[in-house]
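Recall from the previous lesson that a structure prediction takes nothing but the amino acid sequence as input. Here we apply that procedure to HIT family hydrolase from Boudabousia liubingyangii. The sequence below is the only information supplied.
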Amino acid sequence: MIEANELPGVPDAFQRLWTPHRMAYIEGDHKPQDSSSDGCPFCDAQKLSDEEGLIVFRGDACFVVMNLFPYNSGHILVLPKRHIPLYTDLTESERHEFGEITAHAMKVLAQATGCQGHNLGMNQGSVAGAGVAAHLHQHIVPRWAGDANFFPIIAQTKAIPQLLENQRQILVNVWETV
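The prediction returns the following tokens.
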């Protein structure tokens, strides 16, 4: 007789995709409850080493970080270093750097991942869907033909094949070469 603790791993006709890391998002672990500058995960990331903060690039006024809850492998965020909520709050020089870093990041993602396109997006304010509304951030999501299958539609699940730390290192390695 097989006991319940012996069942995981017993061969059957199904392939399983184990994504226990997604429970952190589902259950709300480590989600910012307060996005003031004191509780802001983006401000906190800047205080850490690049590896610990999952930072891909630091510019003069802006930086790039891996998204902790990615839609696709390689999903990154471009942010100003200053804790501001809206795109219109950027200075002219910050806006210029923000745009230049975005363009460069798209080239890096294309070379590093072989993606065939990108989704760019900013949600301005919590009512617009921003998870961290008090710190402006732009999503860059690499896309491939056929990367949207039944999982997100039916099961509201996204399979991410690479660990954030590994993806960050690949992007860092490519950043200076593009």
